[in-house]
């Protein structure tokens, strides 16, 4: 069973890494692929170059068994849509291996506005990372989708290649890449918000400073 976590990772930080590790251990993923986006569709383009984002992500996950850097979106370039990434993975891995797309609670609340959301579910399971005790979803369409698709635990995810939604409690750290960039721009240290190896690259390359 393979997990997928996409993002700009500009820069990668513990708010990405710790929940990803908890999902991998909690549901028993064989590997978790970090897929940096070339050009996100619904947010500003990354400030760091492709090469530097790759260097930071590679440094962040080095030494963690099961964490894998997947460069397909950067190689493909253009706008990054989840459904296209999943089609690319299916072409490589076949139709039978379970794929699990990791999304945050906020991202999941907007899931039905994504490009081809039902096609995404035809290609992968969704694992929603959320705080324990997270509140009720407001969108009635999303609640109806959960009534049909929600499963409890990793067993049902392993038995099918795609199509289910599982909520996985994680330690969600209130850290954002924007916050880190703002600290650096103000001449303040973001130490303890991201791996030391990533901070070393940022400082060596004078990233995000004004």
Q: Let me know the CATH homologous superfamily.
A: HUPs
Any idea of the CATH topology? Rossmann fold
Strand order of the largest sheet: 4-2-1-6-7-9-8
Helix content: 40-55%
Instruction: Specify the number of helices.
Output: 10
User: Could you tell me the radius of gyration in angstroms?
Assistant: 17 Å
Structural class: alpha/beta
Contiguous low-pLDDT stretches (5 residues minimum) are none
Strand content range: 15-25%
Mean pLDDT: 92
CATH architecture: 3-Layer(aba) Sandwich
Distance between the termini: 43 Å
Give the biggest beta sheet: 7 strands, parallel
Question: What global shape is seen?
Answer: globular
Tell me the number of structural domains. Answer: 1
Task: Write down the secondary-structure element order.
Answer: EHEEHEHEHEHHEHEHEHH
How many DSSP E strands? Answer: 9
Top CATH class: Alpha Beta
């Amino acid at each position: 069973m393979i997990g997928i976590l996409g993002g700009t990772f500009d820069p990668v930080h513990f708010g990405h890494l710790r929940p990803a590790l908890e999902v991998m251990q909690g549901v028993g993923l064989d590997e978790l692929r970090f897929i940096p986006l070339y050009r996100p569709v619904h947010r500003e383009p990354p400030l760091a170059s492709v090469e530097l984002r790759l260097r930071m992500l590679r440094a962040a996950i080095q030494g963690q068994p099961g964490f894998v850097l997947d460069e397909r979106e950067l190689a493909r370039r253009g706008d990054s849509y989840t459904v296209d990434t999943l089609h690319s993975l299916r072409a490589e891995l076949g139709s039978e291996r379970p794929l699990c797309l990791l999304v945050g609670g906020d991202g999941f609340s907007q899931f039905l506005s994504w490009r081809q959301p039902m096609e995404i579910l035809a290609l992968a399971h969704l694992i929603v990372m959320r705080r324990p005790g997270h509140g009720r979803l407001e969108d009635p369409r999303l609640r109806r989708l959960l009534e049909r698709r929600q499963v409890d635990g990793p067993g049902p995810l392993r038995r099918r290649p795609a199509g289910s939604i599982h909520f996985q409690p994680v330690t969600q750290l209130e850290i954002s890449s924007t916050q880190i960039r703002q600290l650096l721009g103000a001449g303040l240290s973001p130490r303890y918000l991201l791996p030391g190896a990533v901070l070393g690259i940022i400082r060596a390359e004078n990233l995000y400073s004004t």
